[in-house]
Each structure stands twice: as C-alpha cells, then as structure tokens.
Amino acid sequence: MKKKKKKISGTFRKWLSIIVLTAFVLSLLFSWLYQTGKVRDNAASLLKINIEDVRQDTIDASDENLLKLTEQIAGELDRLEEGASSEDLPALMEKYDVAEINVINEKGIITASTYPLFLNYNMYDGSQSAEFTCLLDGGLTSFVQSYQPISRDPSLSRKYAGVTLKRGGFVQVGYDAERFQRDIDKQIIGVTRNRHVGETGSVIVANENQVIVSDRHQYEGQELAATGIRIDREAMKPDTVCMATVYGKESYLMYTFTEGYYIISVIPSNELLLSRNTSVMMTAFMDIVVFLELFILVVILVRQLVVKNIDSVNGSLSRITEGNLDVEVDVRDSAEFSSLSDDINTTVATLKKYIADASARIDQELEFARVIQLSAMPRVFPQREEFEIYATIDPAREVGGDFYDFFQVDEDHLALVIADVSGKGIPAAMFMMTAKSLIKNRARLGENPEEILGHVNNQLCEGNDAELFVTVWLAIIELSTGKGLAVNAGHEHPVLRRAGGAYELVKYRHAPAVGLEEGIRFRQHAFEMHPGDSLFVYTDGVPEAHDPENRQYGTERMLSALNRRPDASQKELQETVRADVDSFKGDAPQFDDITMLGFLYNGSGKTGTDGKTEEVTVDATMDNLPQVMAPVIRALEKLECPPETGRHVRTAVEELYVNIESYAYAPGTGPVTVRVRTETDPRAITVTLIDKGIPHDPLKKPDPDLTLSLEDRPIGGMGIYMVKKFMDEASYRYDDGRNMLTIRKMIP
Q: Which of 89, 96, 270, 400 could form a disulfide with 593 if both were Cys (CB 3.0 to 4.6 A apart)?
C-alpha cells in the first residue's frame, strides 16, 4: 500500500511544536540549573552572614571580657609605688585567673613577666608581639589581639590584650580558651538560641572538643555528632557550603572556627529549594505564555502566507493531474507565487502539445501492435468430428498480456493453452509472444506438458530484466481416447462439465508460474474426457472483474452463467459469460484482460457431424418409465430402426432403468437422467443413464450359466446379460459422485 503523504502545514506544525517544546524544555532546564546554583549561592551568603554575626559577637564578647580583666590588672599595677616587678605578677595572675602577665616599658622591653624567659624581650622583635607596639605611639590606650597559637608554642592557643600604664609602657595579659569561654558561654548561649537562619535554620556553637555550647534545640552539653554534624577540619574547609542531615533534615551548612569555638550555620535545603521551585514555576508559566503566543503567531503567518497559497496551487495541480489540462494556476499574492503560477501554466501548455503529438504516435503504434498480437492467435476455429473449440480475448488496453492457443501436435493429439503475463502493455505483449512461440515449438517436438514448461521456463528466465512471468494452463489431449495430460502453472482453476452434468471447478495443486526461477519442476496430472464432456478455461480478468462498488465478479457467478445453458455451443457459452460480466461491472472500467477458451469433446470420430442429443431427468420410480422411454422411442423412429433392433434397445434401457429404480436409492428414491444421442453417419444410438445413488457397476455381475435348467439356475442376472448381448458397446464409470452407464447400438 502506498504510504499517504503528509501535508506541509501538518509537518510544519509538527516541527515547530518540536522546536518550541525543545526551547521550552531547554529554558526550563537552564532556569532550573541557574536557580539551583543560585540557591547554593544564597545558602552560602546566608550561612556566612549568620556565622560572621555570631563570630563577631563571640569576638566582641571575648575582647570585652579580656579587656576588662586587663584594665583591672593595669589599675592595680598603677597603684604600686615602686612600679611593677615580676614578684608582683603571680599574685595578680592567680587573683584574676589569667594565663600570663607581661609588663612592657616605654621602649617596648618586657621588664616584668610571669614567664621568666620573656624578661628583657623586645616586643618589636616578633611579628606577634609587634602588634602591641601601637600602645607605645600614644594613639591607643588599649589593644586586643585575636585568639591564635603563641609563637613560643604553636600547639598552645591564647588571646592577649594590652592596656597602657600611667607610668608609661603597658601591661599585656593573656588567657586561654578555657578561661574566656567560661566567661562568655552564657552570652553565646543567648546569642544563638534567639538566632534564626532564614525561617527554620539555626546557629550551633561548639567548643574545641566539638561539645555543643549553644543551639536552638537545647543540645547543650552533647557532642556535635548528636545533631548529625561531623566536622573534620582537614576534610571540611571552613566557610564552605556543604550538605548534611542535621536534626533529621537535609540541610546546607557552613562552619568557622574562632576564639576556640566552632560556629556552625545550618538551614534546611527545602526552605531554599522552595524559592527555587517557585521561581522555576513562574519562569515556566511565562515561557508557556511566550512560546504559545509565538507558536500561534508563526502558524497563522505561515498558514496565510504560504500554506494557503500552496493549497490553492495544489488544488489546481490536482485537477491538472486528473486530466483537466485546461485549468490555469492563478495565485498572485506574492511575487514568488505569481512566478510559480506562470511557470506551471507555461509547462502545462507545452505538455498539452507534447501529449497530443505523443498520443497520436502511440495510438498508431499500439494499433499496429494490437493487430500483430491478435494475428498471432488462432482466429479460425476448426469444425472437427472429435471436438468443438472456441476462444475469445478482450484486452484491457490496446495491447494485453493474455493469450490462448490450440494446435495439432500430431494427427491424434491436440494442445490447448491459455496464459496470462504479469503486467500490461507492449512489454507484456512481447513477453507473451515469446512464451507462446516457445510453448508451441517445444510441444511439436513431442514433449509432454511437464517437459514443455520446464524448458520454456528456463528459456524465459534468461535475460528477463523486466522480471516478468506468465501463468499457464497447458493440456495435450489424445483425441482418439479422450485421455490427456495437463499442467497448471499458477493459473486459474479449469472448469469441467461431464456429459449431461453441470460446469464445476476442478481444483488441484498448482505449480509455480513460468519465468519466476530457473530449474522449477512442473508436475503434470492425467485426466480423461468422455464424449459430451466440456472444458472451459479463462484468465483472472473474468473472476476479478469489479463493479462500481469494487466487488469482484467471482467464480460462482461465472459458473452460474455457464450453467444457464450448459448445452449451448462454446461460442454461445462465452458470449453468455461476457454479457454477464459486462452487466455486473456496469460502468466500472475493465482493469484486466478477459480471455476464455472452450473445448467440447465429441469422441473418437464414431459420431457423425449431425449427431443430436436429447435428455430427460425424472425421479427413479416405475411411474416415470414412460417419460424415460419417450426420447428413446423418438430416436429409434428418427433412425428408422428395424423393429427387432428397436425392441432390443428398448429392453436394454428398460432393464437398466429398473435396476436403478430397485437398487440405486433403496429404500428411497432419487433423480435419474437419461441422455439419448443419435448418429446418422453411420447410424447409431447411444443412451447414457446417470444417477447419484450408491456406487454400483451392474456390468460386473457374472453372466448366468445357461447350461443349467431354470430350476437349478440362480435368480437374477438375466436382464444385465441381455443388455450385454443386445448392445454393441456397454461401459460404466463412476465420476464426481455419479453412476454413469452408457450403451451403444449400431442401426443396420
């Protein structure tokens, strides 16, 4: 089946939809990725701000506490009349619970210290200590240094503060994390418990041992891991966003370490992703609106500017291609379509001229080819004692692919051929001519149908570039006996009518068509025709004829037409079938060649040319015996039969009829047909009795022993014995469910 072509408007809408949808998906994906990245950036910013706030609060609290202690110590040192010495410092260190006290003079030299090794150390010599020299410039009166490892022992972290002394110089006080954390833990707890990160996030503060100092969920005193957070300072970089499950929720977190504390800022991811989802949904909505408007606008523009004009052009072209070459294309909405209309109209005008010229030339050539083709087929049908033959061919075109043929192979053998070449026109006709010649030449070499088609098949396969093939029914009949051989190479089933019966399909296994493949074996089958039997063969143009509603004529209608007048001549039969086909198809065109060949077998030549047949069918009862005998009596009178001979014939017919009435349908009854044929040259009468009863050959019954007396002789058998004795010929056959007994008597 030919695939239906799609319209350009549909294809355009399809691809525009794909492009718009792709753009929408890519836009949505970009928005999703962008907003997801933005969520992470927002998380980092939000977490960092909260960490910095808490960190600064922690530093401020630490600075304030340490500075307060340092000022108190500086006040006590200012009250010493002699100035501070190293002996005065341990008591102050213990009193104020600090880790270290150093007194520095105006030149930056440590003059007193709780750590003896620091005495006489110049504060300007170290980068850490030099930070406090700002107190010697007169600009500042106090300075607090950040919590950090000390230079003399990097494993020890400490925080220092300095306050100027009244006598000059300054005092430096240092304390460690344990001391200042104890002072500021309460302040940190207050800061973190009331701090929200976003709506549901929080800040967690833990000491150096990762024990929670403060959080909103009151995990104070528990290890940090209880919240789901595990900080590995080597693996997790400070001030970097990472993901973790905190308080049972997937969360973003960031940490920093300051003043001996881990400050951790946490916010659940779903809170930030909500804003991303909302933003993406808004973007998707806007994209849908924009892309839908764009799609509608483009479709409308293309429809109005292109598709509408194309449809108009196609409408005109459609009428042109249907054969109306007088149609003009007139689409002038744009310069392009105006030019296209002019070009098409010019092309059609030129085409009309070419068609007219070519049509005239082709008509002439086809007529020549048709004459040659038909001349190759027998057009004269011989009048023979043994048979009656007639054939017709009606090509669907001027030249067709069907052919028939009949010819004498020798004095006693007649070949019958009907075939159908695939395809139509001149190529099929040329292939037909070749096949017909090859079949006839091989047949006249004395080959049987199987051998003929085997050789012809191989010859046709050579150089068959057109890949044509031919279905063939070929039979060779021995006229003296009615015996024949036939091959059906992919052709229609033949139709057979036994004498006095109806035309019926003869179905048997087909061989492949001729010309398909080299080396094919064509199996033949034997058959036998009896006087009065008829053959009807045809091509598929008969059963495959269509009416206006595309229904097929079929073989059943064909058989029905044949059986309207089964005893008509072969010519009349074919005229009846052709008239019935024409009536069926009505105004519908003929798509295929219609070819028919009919053959009636009369016998071996014993029948005169003026032989006549009469038959009657009745129920097999004794009441109908007069009806059966009537045509027999008329035939005997016509032949001017001597009384004795006539009596013998009547006795034989009556005996056979009674035998059918008694045994064929016992205990019921059924139809019997009596066919009477007269022959005048020489004079003879042939009577055939046909019934559909149980198979029974009365001629096989043993003849009675006439040497026995009537008392000793078995009853029965004398009637059939008389038939055999009285008649010149008596034969029986069982064919198609029918008993057929024929008797023949020569009239002296």
A: 400
